[in-house]
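Hello Y.,

Per our agreement to keep a running log of every chain we model this quarter, I'm adding this entry. I've kept the format consistent with earlier entries: sequence first, then predicted structure.
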Amino acid sequence: SALVAAASLAAAWRDARTAPAGDSAMSPPAAAEGALPVAPTVREAAAVMIRYGLPLVPMTSLVWIIHCSDRYLLAWLRPDLGNAAVGVYGANYSLAMMVAVVFGPFGLFFLPAAAKLWDAGDKAQVGHLARQTVKYGLIAMLPVVLSAPVLGDAGVQWIAGAAFRADRTVILLVMLGYAFQALASVAEAPLALAIRTSRILLHAICAAGANLGLNLALIPRTDAWGGLNGAAIATAASFGLLLLLHRWAARDVEGWSLGFGMAVLVALAAGIGAGLVRLWGAQGAAELAAALLAGAVAYALLLGVFGVVKRSEIGAAVAVLRTVPRK
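Predicted structure for the entry above:
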């Protein structure tokens, strides 16, 4: 399951750490030489909580603007498409959420572990953990993104009906938007941990503003850049901007990088696997299952051949899987 995969990430990260066991970075400075950490007063703790949490209060509304405002703008700016277009767009948008679902367990694991390392003063290992999270998140997300043509056609038809099919570009772009949002949640970590949440708010305001502007500019168009495609472009571009802003703001954090260069190798492996599935063909359920299995095996092997997943990480993950209780 995805939760087991997240647990495997934890083991793989521990196994791949560059810092030796017992490194002083894993021991908080306050604990050195028997010193006890000084507990903050209630007023000090409250001040930190307010400084951290207050800028994040509007975040839900800003993310809602990016994810949902396009539905209302579609009905308002393109009445010629009718209310049915909003339903078609919503059906494809909901199915694209699969990208967020597969990344969810990795994000759930990342921030608590990163906070523990940050509080220990081990910023270099926070960066290493971020790169591992991005790597395994991409490994999980990219096959889903590459399945967009199938999900946008047969998937939507099977789940919602033929009337809800749209241009395959719509679901592909929305999936990219969800992928950028997932990566942005990792990229913002040093800002959150350093209590620079006002920057996170500023970036979200810029992304939401860009989303509204792009929707207003693109949705009214009647060419391939407009309508449902225009709304999907706005979603992907807005979350892409959010990711870039977070990454730029954290550029001065020691040891912090997301290892995006690895994304090229992951995409190449996923693309070859998807191409194998397509070449295999599927005329029925059995053929489809065989094609998917062949593609998955090719994908896994190529990740090892390209050096994306190291043998030590595989061994650590297998060790974790062996501890899972069996009925």
